[in-house]
Structure prediction request, 263 residues.
Amino acid sequence: MKLLQSLCLAAALCLGVSAAHAATITVGASPTPHAEILKVAEPALKAAGYDLKIVEYADYVQPNMALEGKELDANFFQHKPYLDDFNKEKGTKLNCMAAIHYEPFGIYAGRTKDLAKLGKGAVVAVPNDTTNEARALLLLQDAGFIKLKAGVGLSATKLDIVENAKKLKIEEIEAAQLVRSLPDVDVAIINGNYAMLGGLQVANALLTEKADSVAATTYANILAVRAGDEGRADLKALVNALKGEAVKKFMNEKYKGAVVPMF
Prediction:
């Protein structure tokens, strides 16, 4: 009898572990706003029968490598141009499953508090990764400070600047360090999530991307998964939860234009 009870208990424990594993979705995310958004989506995901485990990352490389290495089921921190560039450089096979929101890039004041007073030789900090640097330079071009080589688009680097009347010095800095660089540069062009994480308000940016710009669709923040996992029921439930009304309301009320729903 005791042997039978022990076998039943062992079987139950094994079943419990298996069920818990199957019902848990592990997602890597930047702390702000991605992890915050995931937490708001959690109740809807729970109602669909899944638990959510959020793993926070402070950089743009580890969450993709962790997803490729099957430590995560999905990640939520990047836009598709960055993902495409990452796949090309690292040989990873990650896909976009859904576009969730858009974070306007902004030009933020460092030593210079007014773009009209940006002087000759001023130092402008931009992200040092390919796609985000291009995005920053396009915003600088829209502001009238530089002109880029025709057709260079999302692959632009500072080497593609063909006109720079003020002889601005473009300083390439890791995206996560841009807020910290502000005291040492005249202005910095900063990714939305790192701006928020650093305590900056989009309303205080000297200039931001327009809501109807190509960036609104091109640079939408996405839920990324491994190639071939797009049909998984648990990940489809995660997308539905992230596109719920509770999440949309949270984005609009919490971030006040710094995070714009794409649904």
